[in-house]
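User: Show me a protein chain along with its predicted structure.
Assistant: Here is one chain, sequence first, then structure tokens.
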Amino acid sequence: GQFERARVVWAGPDDHDPLPWLQTLYATLWDRLVTMGWQPPETAFRPHISLLRRARSCDVSALHRPPITVYPQRCVLVASRPGEASSHYQILAQLPAD
């Protein structure tokens, strides 16, 4: 897929395979953050791996391919801070995925 406003081309699960364990983790995280005064984003949660940044608007349908099974070794909470030349990422927390 593509996040046009952010100009990012990404790979991730389609709407027919929403990764229930990850959706549950996301919901649990926000349940806890709300009690601390945070507000969840209005946009839908879209787990993804960024493939290309600063991408022009284009048809990404040619990138669709058969599903790839991924077995993550850990789950990481990352803070993303956009910069002028690139984004900066900081790992805030991590847990083993097994």
